[in-house]
Design goal:
single chain, about 290 residues, alpha+beta, Endonuclease III, domain 1, Endonuclease Iii, domain 2, Nucleoside Triphosphate Pyrophosphohydrolase, 3 domains, 4-stranded mixed beta sheet, 8 strands, binds iron/sulfur cluster
């Protein structure tokens, strides 16, 4: 959950997730729609699918026991060097380094790194520097301290060097100018068209096969219909895009193979990506207001 996501965002999901899937066996046995539903709103759904796939492997091949060795766990889907090492150090106190956004910034400044931290060479230098610093004992505390130092003192923009406990051996000449990074790509605008089709307490939804694979969304339209009124417009970010979601009134037709009618009471229990859930809530509110409910 913490891959590319802040702790504050994850906290409301973590407890309910553990209550629903208390161990690998429970997660491995769950249908994918339950897993996506529990993840709904956290975004980056590939993480949920990877975790589900990893749980199946842990159960089928490792007796339900998650290995303490990051070399082993890196073979699981969704676990790269950072995630495997983070679990190894925080769960098992293994003396392995971690490099994430906060420690990367801190280490780049400590070493006055003049390479881009998102380049292959820059990454390798950061990982080897982190490896030279990690102690054999209490690596968990050390790694946690590095992350906190980056998050609270050696912050992005203007770091608080006057309060920094490692100031005496920091080599940064111009801390605010570090770390070096590739300039961000400009967001591209994208418009997506969908239809709102409802009939007698039911709504027609379509199962996504790409971006939100396995989740349900409002049926896709290839182009905005000429005559149908626009009922909803909203925006959401997706990777390097700012997506404009436009929903038009549709008329009930026979459902396509990827589509299904759902009773409105069912909708809360199926996985919908947040932009479509918000749109659907708005559309149903409009419908209720039109009926004077
Ligand atoms: S002295 Fe400043 S730049 Fe160096 S690690 Fe501390 S906060 Fe960061």
């Amino acid at each position: 959950m913490l891959q590319q996501t802040q702790v504050a965002t994850v906290i409301p999901y973590y407890g309910p997730w553990l209550a629903r899937f208390p161990d690998f066996a429970a997660l491995a046995a769950a249908p994918e729609s339950d897993v996506l539903h529990a993840w709904q709103g956290l975004g980056y759904y590939a993480r949920a699918r990877n975790l589900h796939a990893a749980a199946k492997i842990v159960v089928a091949q490792h007796g339900g026991i998650f290995s303490a060795s990051p070399l082993e766990t890196r073979k699981l889907p969704g676990l790269g060097r950072y995630s495997a090492n983070a679990v190894a150090t925080f769960a098992f106190d293994q003396p392995v380094p971690i490099v994430e956004a906060n420690t990367a910034r801190l280490l780049a400044r400590l070493s006055n790194l003049q390479l881009r931290i998102d380049s292959g060479k820059g990454q390798e230098l950061l990982w080897s520097l982190a490896a030279t610093l990690v102690p054999k004992r209490n690596a968990r505390i050390h790694n946690s301290a590095l992350m906190d130092l980056g998050a609270l003192v050696c912050t992005a923009g203007q770091p608080n060097c006057a309060a920094c406990p490692v100031r005496s051996f920091c080599a940064a000449e111009d801390p605010a100018a570090l770390p070096l990074k590739k300039p961000r790509a400009q967001l591209k605008q994208l418009t997506e068209f969908h239809g709102f089709v409802s009939d007698d307490g039911r709504v027609l939804l379509e199962q996504s096969r790409d971006r939100w694979r396995g989740m349900w969304m409002l049926p896709r339209l290839a182009a905005p219909p000429a005559a149908a009124p626009l009922l909803h417009r909203s925006h959401f970010p997706f990777t390097h895009h700012r997506v404009r979601l436009e929903v038009f009134a549709g008329t009930p037709t026979r459902a396509l193979r990827s589509q299904r009618w759902f009773a409105l009471e069912e909708v809360a229990s199926i996985p919908l990506p947040s932009p479509h859930r918000r749109a659907l809530t708005d559309l149903l509110d409009q419908q209720d207001a039109g009926r004077g409910i």
